[in-house]
Each structure stands twice: as structure tokens, then as C-alpha cells.
Write a structure and sequence with these properties.
The chain is α/β, with parallel strands linked by helices and 859 residues long. The strands form 10 sheets. It has a 4-stranded antiparallel β-sheet with strand order 6-5-14-16. It has a 4-stranded mixed β-sheet with strand order 10-11-9-12, covered by helices on one side. A hairpin with a 4-residue loop joins strand 5 and strand 6. Residues 1-13 have low confidence and may be disordered. The chain binds one RNA strand of 72 nucleotides through helix 11, strand 25, helix 18, helix 20 and helix 23.
RNA sequence: GGGCAGUUAGCUCAGCGGGAGAGCGCCCGCCUCACACGCGGGAGGUCACUGGUUCGAAUCCAGUACUGCCCA
């Protein structure tokens, strides 16, 4: 199994199989030790930078990471080979909520909690946790073969990074973009903190919808409102109706009396009310509904908070309800409304309600004093940057997604009621508030206990990692970055904010291309997730099939849309690895070696393969340029399997190709392959006599000459002939080396040796007796099996051939008979159609003649 | 409620204006001196539906039906 590694690090014996588990660690170490990954900001070479979307320190590699980082590694490796000074910025994110939860779970297991520990000790525990477990994803990225700048690892809670965060907060505050206020926030009762709009997800829920009658204060009737949250009626401060609703027109401006509470509240007209929905009358609870909060602002209505940050009913809800949970309160309110005789109806209602993406609990909208960033001023240049193409999205459609969000940008709730994170640089003393890096002079100042939304620090990633605000060499050499590759679900959370911050603080976009990769779903189309049990662990796949196979398979799957995970694609990658390994062995065995000078293709087969390589290199460049990674992987696969192995190496064995050229071509194939499947590329390279250095620093794949149409045509005809002969033999159940005699009536008759080697057929000088006639695109071939032909079967086959030709002829005639086609279609196409007509007419005539001869001769 | 994407071979997906492709699976035959994680040969699609544009539509446009996602 394992080919024991001798002193020079190369496997001793090149067995039939490549063993990834043995080879991969060797190459990971070799890349590192050779200095191939070193980054030099002082280099004269052009810089090429990608900033990794920093994985959470708590994270383990999932399929999305595996795909995304394979893509980035392909880009990085290609540019490194091209001679750029590449930097793939590496680091992890402190991930406030996720990390704090992990440590809290740990504490719970120990029978304690963060309150007992106290803030300082708790934070120490988080750091300890990070030191102990935080390196997992780093190790996993290494085993995937990712060539990040591991030597310069960043963490969003590093001292220098934290200083950058504080500085930006203070600066945005000084510029008036950050403010503190009482606004409606998404309160996560599970975590006891506000969360941003983007951390909220809508889920479908079935609630009870009740209709409640609010009597008009002047005794002139009642107004029936519908609600799924009866407990919030305790906080109602108005009823709103549509201004166009005739049913309520005469009530606008009057007041009604809130049942159970007795508060007199106005009836207002507002465009936001949908007269079709419910009764057309909307109870307005500004403190616990986003829509209602906005209506209240338009009508200058007060807000009454009846649910507190502890998730329970407040004193303002009334003595009877204070202290209850909202659910308990809802039941009691309905009961009391019933008793009061104002409950009009009750039914089930299914609708979408907000849940915390973080804790999974139902979000409680409530008014709270928080710090916000007003993003409008920052959004403006970020919109311009995308509109004028300084930042391009691939696939393009995400441009509109980005712009739509940016153009309707809302204030960003920045404060999180957590302990782990960047603490707000804000100080309080009584009613005094100070924003600054340090507490002001004087006694009694206390720092705000809250921390910043994790995404606030992530927004600075492309430049804070390079040492900003210091004017470092790294910053000068590597900002802006070139490509950001990331998942669709963080376009707003992260991408948009990086653009805003980059423009604000670096006066330049943080990257010029944003590539949004596919979401990899479970094989059954569900989301891949641990909780659903649908997750597939990339680490296991690496162990089973090798990192190259995983990388290849993921690239094959990647697309402009979401894709289902396919084990078969990984298997396909593994097959390619094995194929290459064995191709390498064959080339070496046949005496292929790399020399010092240029190698020119010698034979027709050499020239054909060189031409195909040239095409493949061009296709690969084009694919990568357009971020079409499945096309890249597919192209390499077919070059290796269908061209190099199936035909070229077979021709080499048949003595029709040159070993030196085979080696030179393999070198370029490995250079093309290296960024995609780096391990097997190195391993095969290391086996090639004369190979210097490693693929990781090899020059980019170089064509061995341009396209060669002549050689391509000749080999295409050879392939067609060989395939036709194999088919012929296979259909008749002839043995593999069938020994049929063949005579070809047409140009480009392949060498007798080639036909013997590839098709097991014997070329003869004249049309053999008793032969079958088989049509080829460039002529006809007469094939005579040793045992003679089956006349009946041949007659049937010829008849089928004639029928086929007839249908082709009538198709071509129909096309050419269409005047409009002849007039309007491109001349080239019309010409093609004419040539086709001639060809099939000739073929038909030949087949008819053969048929006649066969019938006549058999008498 | 608004928007975006998808519907192509049994499965997973390419193709996106000139005669339907890949991988896997399936059938037949091969231990051919690189590779049985292999080699050779084959079968298998009215390209969701309806209309339109065009000499020509899987490919462009409009609509319908499902499916998924995003925003409200």
C-alpha cells in the first residue's frame, strides 16, 4: 500500500495506485518548507490578493467552505504560477454570539454560568477556548490543500484589529453616522440581545387570529380589529384604517376605547393599511410591531411598551398581566375579552413570523435604547462603485440584489447585549455620554457593557488585516484585493458593508470582482445542516477519496445556481487522480523524460496532442476568467481521459508518438492541473525524470505550438476509422483482435501498424473480396472479416444505411429547397448543407452499388 | 405582496439561435505488457406546457403550471 518514502521524500515504488493519505501531508509540508508560500510585500511582481471570508473560530469545515476555498485556491495558485506576488489573507472571525454560546455550553456542563464567573473571568475562558479548539478549521483548510498565508494569521479580536474597530466606531460617530436612540429592534429573548434585521429569518407559523370589537368612545358603534397577537392590544395607541375605505370613512378622527385597558385611542387613516386584510381596521401597537412603529411615527402616536427585555409583560401592561409571558398573557387577554363580550371571533391563521437566526427563538419586536449606524451616506459611494463597474458581481444578477438592498438601506443596530466581542467605545456618567477610545478625565465613568455586532468588525476585513490604520507595506502592496469569493447569504451582511467601509477608509473599493458561489445542498435537495442530519463532512471525503478528488468534484458541481451534492462527482475526481498517476507511470516506462531545451512535436500524433493541449489551455483561461469552474474541471478531465490517455498514449504505445514529447505534454498538463488537483500534480511531476522544482511554482501551462488543423483532421479521421472498426467487430461478436482486413477508400489512410494496434485490423492494398462497406465521414471502408460475412445481415445493414442516407438527403433537400433559408442563412451554412447533400448522395450510390453486387455475387 | 432562479437521458447536471451532451447508473464484450477506481462497444431524451419572433428555437420573447431562494 504505502510506498515507503525514501530520504528524498519521493515514494520508492510507483504502484498502480496513488495513495492520497500518504502523499498529501508530504506535499503540504514541502510547500511550506520550500518557501513556496512566502509572501513578500516588497516584491516588484504585481500583487494578487484574496481575503478569505474568515471562518468562525468555532467553525469546522463544511461543504460550503470546501467549495469556496477550493475556488479561491485555484485562483491563487494560478496567479502564483503566473509569477504574481500572491497573498491569500488568512484569519478567523471571533463570531460573537456563536463563540459565546459554545463557552456557555461548556460552563453549563460544569454546572456554572457566566454570571457566576463574572465578565473578566468569562472572557479569559473564551480565549482559552479559542487557543484550545480554534485551530481546527485551519488544519482542515491545510488538508484541503489551500495555500493561504498561514504565516500571517489574523483574528478579528487581535489587539491591532480591535484598535481598528474602535477607531472606525469613533470616527463614524464623529462624522454623525452613529447615534444612540430608542427604536424598535428585533429582540432575541433567547440570547437577551437585540439582533440586526439580517439575523432574522421568517418562518411559517399557525397562530390563533382573534377579532376584537373596540367600542367608539362617543357610543356610536364599534370597530372590529383582527390580530394574531392579542396580548399586544394592551399596548395599542391607535386604530388605523385605509383612507379609501368607505366602511370607516366617517370614523376617521374620532376615538375608540381600548377594552380591558380603558385608554381612549384615535382612529387614523394610513396608506399602509390594506382594506382587504382582516376587517380592514388595524390595531396599532408601536412598541411591538415594525409596521405599527412606522405608522405611529407618521401620526405622532405614543408607544406603550408592554413586553420587556426580559421577555415578560411589563407593568404598563396592567396589574393583571404584568410578569406573564406573552403566550400566557395572550390566553388571559382572550379570556378576559370574552368575558367583556368584545371577542367577535377566533380562528386559525397561518403566516410568516420572525425568528432569531441565532437562537432559533421567536423574535420579539420591542423598543429599546441601542446604538445604530445610519448607513445612507456610506451607501451612496458603494452604489456608485457597483453601478460604474469598479465592483462586478458574478453571476451578474446579484448586482441588482445588492443595489436593491443598498438603495433601501436601513439603520443598522450595532449593539449586542453580549460579553464576547468588541466592546463599545462609549462611556457614561449619569446622563453624560462620551464616545472615545478612553474614558474621559474624571471619576465615575463607566464603559457601555455591550459589544458590537460581529459584522461591524468583519466589514473592515480587507484592510484591517493588512495593518490599517497603520500605513504598512502590506497595505500598500495588497490593497485593494482582486476577488472576493463568497456565499450568497452574506451579500448584505458582509459584502455590501465591506464595500462601504473600504470606500470610506481606504478611498478605494476592497475588491473588483465578487464571485457568488453555489450553495451545495444535500443530495436530496434539502439544506445541508447538522440539525437536519443532512450534512456531509468534507474531512471524511478527504480521508476516503483524497483532497484532489474532493476539490475536483466540488468544482464540477459548481454552477451559477444551487447544486445538489453528488458523490459521483467526487468519484470522478478520484478516477482522474488514478488515471493521471498511471499515465505518468506509462510515460516514464516508455522512456519519457524532460530535457533542458524546447521540445517540438515530431509525429502527427504529437502535433495533434499539442494542438489539443493548446485548445485546452485556452479553454481553461476562458473558463477561469468567467468564473466557470465546472468548465475548467470538465475540460481538464476530457483532455486527460479522452485525448491524452485514450488516444495519444495508445498512439505512443503503437510507436506513433515520441516519448520526449509525451513527457513535455504531460508537464504542461500537470501545470494546467496543478491549481485544481495540486497533490497528484506534484506527485506525478516528482516521478518524471528531469523534472525540476515543484508544480506549485512551475510556470503556467505553455502550449507546444499553436493549433494544428491539419494534424487535428488527420487524427480525427484516424479516430473515426478505429472506432468504426471496433464497432464493426463488437457488433458481430468478433474477438478483440478481430483480424479483419480493411481497405479505405478516401484520404488519410491510417498507418497499418496503427490500425493493427488500435483496432486489431489488418490494412490491405486493395478492396478485399466479400467485404462489408462501411460509410465514413470522409470516404468508405471495405471490411472483410476472416470468417467471411453474413450475407443476409449485410444486406439488411446496407439497406439500413441506404434508408439513413435517404433521410439525410431529404433533410438536406428540404433545407436547400427553402428559398428563404438559402437567401437568409449564412453562406457558410448553406454551403455545409450542399456538401452534406453531395456526401450522402455519393454514399447512397455506393451503398446501392454494394447492395447490388452482394445480391448478384451471392447467386 | 414584490423579485430572482430552475424545470434537458433512470439520477445529478452542462449546453443557451444552426442537426441533443457529460458523469454515474443500465446492457454486451474484455484480467489488451499504465490503469478492472480500468478498456472497447451499445441502449436510452416530443429539452415542463401554450403561444409568438425567426429561413431556423432546448436556446430569444410572452403567458401557464409546478419547485427553490431572496426581499417585504
Amino acid at each position: 500500500m504505502t510506498q515507503g518514502a525514501p530520504a528524498d521524500g519521493r515514494p520508492a515504488d510507483a504502484g498502480a495506485r496513488f495513495v492520497p493519505a500518504e502523499a498529501e501531508p508530504r506535499w503540504i509540508a514541502a510547500w511550506q518548507d520550500s518557501g513556496a508560500l512566502d509572501v513578500d510585500p516588497a516584491s516588484d511582481a504585481p500583487g494578487f490578493t484574496i481575503a478569505i471570508p474568515p471562518p468562525n473560530v468555532t467553525g469546522a469545515l463544511h461543504m460550503g467552505h470546501a467549495l469556496n476555498n477550493t475556488i479561491q485556491d485555484v485562483l491563487i495558485r494560478r496567479r502564483r504560477m503566473a509569477g504574481d506576488e500572491v497573498k491569500w489573507i488568512f484569519g478567523t472571525d471571533h463570531a460573537g454570539i456563536a463563540t459565546q454560546k459554545k463557552v456557555e455550553e461548556q460552563l453549563a456542563a460544569e454546572g456554572t454560568d457566566r454570571w457566576q464567573l463574572g465578565r473578566e473571568r468569562f472572557l479569559e475562558r473564551v480565549w482559552e477556548w479559542k487557543e484550545t479548539y480554534g485551530g481546527r478549521i485551519t488544519r482542515q483548510l491545510r488538508s484541503l490543500g489551500c495555500t493561504l498565508d498561514y504565516a500571517d494569521e489574523r483574528f478579528t479580536m487581535d489587539e491591532a484589529y480591535a484598535a481598528a474597530v474602535q477607531r472606525v466606531f469613533c470616527d463614524l460617530h464623529a462624522k454623525g453616522h452613529i447615534f444612540r436612540g430608542d427604536y424598535l429592534v428585533n429582540w432575541d429573548p433567547g440570547l437577551g440581545t437585540a439582533i440586526s434585521d439580517l439575523e432574522v429569518e421568517m418562518r411559517e407559523v399557525t397562530d390563533a387570529m382573534v377579532e376584537i370589537a373596540y367600542p367608539l368612545s362617543d357610543g356610536g358603534g364599534e370597530l372590529v380589529v383582527a390580530t394574531v397577537r392579542p396580548e399586544t392590544m394592551l399596548g395599542d395607541t391607535a386604530v388605523a384604517v385605509s383612507p379609501d375605505d368607505d366602511r370607516y370613512r366617517d370614523m376617521i378622527g374620532r376615538t375608540c376605547t381600548l377594552p380591558l385597558v380603558g385608554r381612549e385611542i384615535p382612529i387614523v387613516a394610513d396608506e399602509a393599511v390594506d382594506p382587504e386584510f382582516g376587517t380592514g381596521a388595524l390595531k396599532v401597537t408601536p412598541a411591538h410591531s415594525g409596521d405599527d412603529f412606522e405608522i405611529a411615527q407618521r401620526h405622532d402616536l405614543p408607544a406603550v411598551s408592554v413586553i420587556g427585555e426580559d421577555g415578560r409583560m411589563t407593568a404598563e401592561a396592567g396589574e393583571a398581566y404584568a410578569g406573564l409571558t406573552p403566550e400566557e398573557c395572550a390566553r388571559k387577554v382572550v379570556e378576559d375579552l370574552g368575558a367583556a363580550g368584545v371577542l367577535r371571533s377566533e380562528r386559525e391563521y397561518t403566516h410568516e413570523v420572525p425568528f432569531s437566526h441565532r437562537s432559533g427563538e421567536r423574535v420579539q419586536p420591542l423598543i429599546s435604547l441601542q446604538w445604530f449606524a445610519d448607513m445612507e451616506a456610506l451607501a451612496e459611494p458603494a452604489i456608485a462603485a457597483v453601478r460604474d463597474g469598479r465592483v462586478r458581481f458574478t453571476p451578474e444578477r446579484f448586482t441588482d440584489v445588492y443595489l436593491a438592498w443598498m438603495e433601501n438601506i436601513r439603520p443598522w443596530c450595532l449593539s449586542r447585549h453580549l460579553w464576547w466581542g468588541h466592546r463599545l467605545p462609549v462611556w457614561y456618567r449619569g446622563d453624560e455620554v462620551h464616545v472615545g477610545l478612553d474614558a474621559p478625565e474624571g471619576e465615575g465613568w463607566e464603559q457601555d457593557p455591550d459589544v458590537l455586532d460581529t459584522w461591524f468588525s468583519s466589514a473592515l476585513w480587507p484592510f484591517a488585516t493588512l495593518g490599517w490604520p497603520e500605513r504598512t507595506d502590506q497595505l500598500a502592496a495588497f490593497y485593494p484585493t482582486q476577488v472576493l469569493s463568497t456565499a450568497r447569504d452574506i451579500i448584505f451582511l458582509w459584502v455590501a458593508r465591506m464595500v462601504m467601509m473600504g470606500l470610506e477608509y481606504m478611498d478605494d473599493v476592497p475588491f473588483s470582482d465578487v464571485y457568488i458561489h453555489s450553495v451545495v445542498q444535500a443530495p436530496d435537495g434539502r439544506r445541508m445542516s447538522k440539525s437536519l442530519g443532512t450534512g456531509i463532512d468534507p474531512e471524511e471525503l478527504i480521508a476516503q477519496h483524497g483532497a484532489d478528488a474532493l476539490r475536483f468534484g466540488l468544482l464540477m458541481m459548481s454552477s451559477t445556481q444551487d447544486v445538489r451534492f453528488s458523490h459521483d462527482r467526487i468519484a470522478q475526481g478520484r478516477q482522474l487522480v488514478t488515471k493521471l498517476w498511471n499515465a505518468g507511470r506509462l510515460v516514464v516506462e516508455r522512456g519519457g523524460a524532460l530535457g533542458d531545451g524546447e521540445v517540438a512535436p515530431q509525429t502527427e500524433a504529437d502535433r495533434w496532442m499539442a494542438s489539443r493541449l493548446t485548445a485546452a489551455i485556452n479553454d481553461a483561461d476562458e473558463a477561469v476568467g468567467g468564473f466557470r469552474f465546472s468548465q475548467l474541471a470538465d475540460g481538464i478531465y476530457h483532455l486527460v481521459f479522452d485525448e491524452y490517455c485514450d488516444w495519444y498514449l495508445e498512439l505512443l504505445k503503437a510507436g506513433q508518438a515520441t516519448p520526449e514529447v509525451a513527457a513535455a505534454l504531460l508537464e504542461q498538463i500537470l501545470a494546467l492541473l496543478g491549481p485544481v488537483m495540486p497533490f497528484v500534480a506534484e506527485e506525478v511531476w516528482a516521478q518524471l525524470p528531469g523534472a525540476q522544482g515543484m508544480v506549485i511554482r512551475h510556470a503556467p501551462p505553455r502550449p507546444l505550438g499553436g493549433r494544428d488543423p491539419e494534424a487535428e483532421q488527420a487524427v480525427e479521421r484516424l479516430k473515426e476509422t478505429v472506432t468504426a472498426l471496433r464497432s464493426y467487430a463488437s457488433e458481430r461478436g468478433l474477438p478483440r483482435r478481430s483480424g479483419v482486413s480493411v481497405w479505405i477508400d478516401g484520404p488519410d489512410t491510417p498507418e497499418a501498424d496503427t490500425l493493427r494496434a488500435l483496432a486489431g485490423a489488418e490494412a490491405v492494398d486493395a478492396p478485399p473480396e466479400g467485404a462489408s462497406v462501411v460509410g465514413l465521414s470522409f470516404g468508405r471502408m471495405h471490411v472483410a472479416p476472416a470468417g467471411g460475412i453474413d450475407r443476409e445481415a449485410e444486406i439488411a445493414r446496407l439497406q439500413a444505411g441506404i434508408d439513413q442516407a435517404d433521410s439525410e438527403i431529404s433533410r438536406a433537400e428540404r433545407q436547400l429547397g427553402n428559398e428563404r433559408f438559402v437567401e437568409r442563412a449564412p453562406a457558410e451554412l448553406v454551403e455545409q448543407e450542399r456538401a452534406k447533400l453531395t456526401r450522402y448522395t455519393d454514399e447512397r450510390a455506393a451503398l446501392v452499388a454494394e447492395l447490388a453486387a452482394l445480391r448478384g455475387g451471392g447467386q
